[in-house]
């Protein structure tokens, strides 16, 4: 073999590939566009994250303010009041006065969401209700002995 000319299909240089190099690029571009469209649709259809904005101690309980309606589950357990909110928020604690006697409350993060625990030296029971107020959601936790 001398040179690069064809002699009985024996040559020293490669022939140009007849296949197009654009097809892998087209497939890669389509995959990238598909992923981007999927991310945008997922972002648009994702539910709004529920966040605890503030806690207010009121005359006979607590008012908890959220940016969206929280799912909640509460129980009166052995003289304490426990309410679980499916929302995000920071851990807090405080005290309030119920009929002139101190009552302690604590918010803490758990696997289920935010847990509000209200305890006192005497048995307590409570009721809770959520309502929309000026674009925010207020959960009223009312306590009584």
Automatic annotation (TrEMBL):
**Where, by residue number, does the polypeptide cross the bilayer?**
22-42
What's in the keyword line of the UniProt record? Membrane, Transmembrane, Transmembrane helix
Kindly provide the name given to this protein in its UniProt entry.
Cytochrome oxidase complex assembly protein 1
Species in which this protein is naturally found: Pseudomonas machongensis
């Amino acid at each position: 073999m001398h040179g690069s000319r064809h002699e009985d299909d024996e040559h020293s240089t490669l022939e140009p590939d007849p296949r197009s190099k654009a097809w892998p690029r087209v497939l890669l571009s389509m995959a990238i566009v598909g992923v981007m469209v999927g991310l945008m649709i997922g972002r648009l259809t994702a539910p709004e994250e529920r966040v605890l904005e503030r806690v207010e101690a009121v005359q006979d309980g607590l008012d908890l303010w959220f940016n969206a309606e929280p799912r909640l589950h509460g129980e009166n357990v052995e003289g304490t009041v426990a309410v679980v909110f499916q929302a995000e928020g920071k851990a807090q604690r405080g005290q309030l006065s119920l009929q002139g006697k101190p009552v302690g409350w604590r918010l803490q993060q758990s696997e289920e969401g935010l847990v509000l625990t209200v305890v006192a030296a005497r048995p307590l029971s409570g009721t809770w209700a959520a309502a929309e107020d000026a674009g925010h959601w207020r959960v009223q936790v009312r306590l009584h002995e």
